[in-house]
């Protein structure tokens, strides 16, 4: 099936924290393989793996030192091959994170590039005699002075993540070879990290400053002329493999920009952070963004739906922490129009980790925020608060398989944060509990598979009345109504010819053609297709 992904639900696995298979304190491929039956029973169709390549892990594997191997912490190439085979045997696809924008400063290519100005790989990276004012997205200058040759190299993120020069055809060929290698290994596609950063303005103009927000506007270091042509080349190459899937992380909250990167001859989908990264629960904003996305996307573009990832706080913490709201958000994600991405642990309600000790923080973005705040004159308390806001460790703690699972992970592992206390929320306790969040996900994913309108149906309408959201999705064979009551008052809805399929509440009032949707209730009904 060429467009299998349109019917699919993906599950993001953060490699070091999902499951330790060899008791060394780090998640790995053998651990993931041991949980494939759990993932199959959960009901997901595709797995997204964060980077597993050899890396110094300055940025948790997004600083790749070798594109053609497996980091020993995660196993061997044989372990990878076995995992791919086992996942495919269960009917699950696998997409993998790939960073085309930059390499680790430890990568052999960069080691050659920095060795001399005359090295054949010098132009594989971006070097200048003098820096401009571009800032790293992690904070501070985006230029690092290299004493060996007396020039500065460019890094959009950490100084250990050195940007490749995509204006050099040799770089492009090398990265296409990387994609071919992993597609030939059997992966079903890629999640392309910060893909809109591949091109920079070759005049290197200074970026302007937004005085109101007191921050730099990244006008010349992303979304530059020529980037869409590169995207089209990547798309054409990858899609030579039947059914290969491309999802892009496009660093923008502008829908007009996002729409340029997906669709015909482009990426299949891009992440929409306007929806996914809403900092706190705001139903008006959430509804507006969903409605606007549907309005602005063309007929071949498909939205993405997600509320957590390895780069942001978990939505259950951002949205108030209640199981009832978590169920409503999950119901919205799994029934609204788009391709859903579940972040590992959200299905059991794992919450954020926050520290009062900077020495326990592992994430480079959080640590850099702390250092920057101290250098700016903040107190240690103020700096720690700023660090916790930026820190991504909060959503990267080990998966809680049972009440003792954290004992299997090492607090000394540099890139895994282990909470001081193990939460009572875990898979084992929820597996046989019909009212658990895990059971809710399983039931809803099962229902989604049974009704094609929930996979590919278009909206007949999408409406909101105060704290009540409801919509109908339909295709040629059926129509499904989804009603979500985020409020504290019951909501009566007049419905003719609808059959109740699913509800989060056992108690409901139904008289004639009127159904009362209770507070915090998610209800799904099937209508007659005439």
UniProtKB/TrEMBL annotation:
Species for this entry: Peribacillus deserti
Any one Gene Ontology MF annotation carried by this entry is:
alpha,alpha-phosphotrehalase activity
InterPro entries referenced in this protein's UniProt entry, alphabetically: GH, GH13_cat_dom, Glyco_hydro_b, O16G_dom_2
Q: Which residues form the Glycosyl hydrolase family 13 catalytic domain?
A: 12-396
One of the Pfam families matching this protein, by short name: Alpha-amylase
Keywords per UniProt = Glycosidase, Hydrolase
Under the heading PANTHER family, the entry gives: ALPHA-AMYLASE FAMILY MEMBER, NEUTRAL AND BASIC AMINO ACID TRANSPORT PROTEIN RBAT
Task: State the protein's name.
Answer: Trehalose-6-phosphate hydrolase
Q: Top EC class per UniProt?
A: hydrolase
SMART domains membership: Aamy (SM00642)
EC number(s): the record gives 3.2.1.93
The UniProt family comment states: Belongs to the glycosyl hydrolase 13 family.
Classify the source by domain of life: Bacteria
């Amino acid at each position: 099936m060429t467009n299998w992904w349109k019917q699919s639900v993906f599950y993001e696995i953060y490699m070091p924290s999902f499951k330790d298979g060899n008791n060394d304190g780090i998640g790995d491929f053998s651990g993931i393989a041991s949980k494939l039956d759990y993932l199959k029973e959960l009901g997901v169709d595709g797995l997204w793996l964060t980077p597993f390549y050899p890396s110094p892990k300055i940025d948790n594997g997004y600083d790749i030192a070798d594109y053609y191997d497996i980091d020993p912490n995660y196993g061997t190439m044989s372990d990878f091959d076995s995992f791919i085979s086992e996942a495919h045997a269960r009917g699950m696809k696998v997409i993998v994170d790939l960073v085309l924008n930059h390499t680790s400063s430890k990568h052999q290519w960069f080691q050659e590039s920095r060795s001399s100005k005359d090295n054949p790989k010098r132009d594989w990276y971006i070097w200048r005699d003098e820096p401009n004012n571009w800032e790293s997205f992690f904070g501070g200058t985006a230029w690092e002075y290299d004493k060996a040759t007396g020039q500065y190299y460019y890094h959009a993120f950490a100084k250990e993540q050195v940007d490749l020069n995509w204006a050099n055809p040799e770089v492009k060929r090398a990265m296409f070879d990387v994609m071919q290698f992993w597609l030939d290994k059997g992966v079903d596609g890629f999640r392309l990290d910060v893909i809109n950063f591949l091109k920079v303005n070759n005049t290197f103009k200074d970026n302007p400053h937004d005085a109101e927000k007191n921050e730099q506007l990244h006008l010349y270091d992303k979304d530059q002329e020529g980037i869409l042509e590169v995207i089209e080349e990547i798309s054409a190459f990858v899609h030579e493999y039947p059914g290969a899937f491309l999802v892009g992380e496009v660093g923008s909250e502008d829908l007009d920009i996002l729409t340029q990167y997906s669709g015909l001859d482009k990426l299949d989908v891009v992440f929409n952070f306007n929806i996914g990264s809403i900092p706190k629960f705001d139903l008006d904003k959430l509804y507006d963004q969903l409605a606007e996305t549907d309005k602005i996307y063309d007929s071949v573009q498909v939205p993405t739906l997600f509320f957590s990832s390895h780069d942001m706080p978990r939505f259950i913490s951002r949205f108030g922490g209640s199981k009832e709201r978590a169920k409503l958000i999950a119901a919205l994600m799994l029934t609204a129009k788009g391709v859903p991405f579940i972040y590992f642990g959200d299905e059991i309600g794992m919450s954020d980790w926050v520290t009062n000790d900077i020495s326990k923080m592992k994430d480079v973005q959080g640590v850099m925020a702390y250092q920057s705040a101290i250098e700016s004159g903040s107190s240690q308390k103020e700096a720690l608060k700023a660090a916790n806001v930026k820190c991504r460790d909060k959503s990267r703690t080990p998966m809680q398989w049972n009440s003792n699972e954290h004992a299997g992970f090492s607090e000394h592992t540099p890139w895994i944060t282990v909470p001081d206390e193990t939460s009572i929320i875990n898979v084992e306790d929820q597996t046989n509990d019909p009212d658990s969040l895990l059971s809710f996900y399983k039931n809803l994913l099962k229902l989604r598979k049974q009704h094609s309108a929930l996979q590919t149906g278009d909206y007949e309408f999408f409406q909101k009345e105060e704290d009540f959201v409801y919509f109908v999705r339909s295709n040629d064979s059926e129509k499904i109504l989804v009603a979500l009551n985020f409020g504290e008052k019951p909501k009566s809805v007049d419905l003719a010819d609808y059959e109740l399929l699913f509800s989060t509440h056992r108690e409901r009032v139904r008289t004639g053609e009127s159904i009362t949707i209770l507070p915090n209730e998610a209800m799904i009904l099937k209508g007659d297709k005439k």
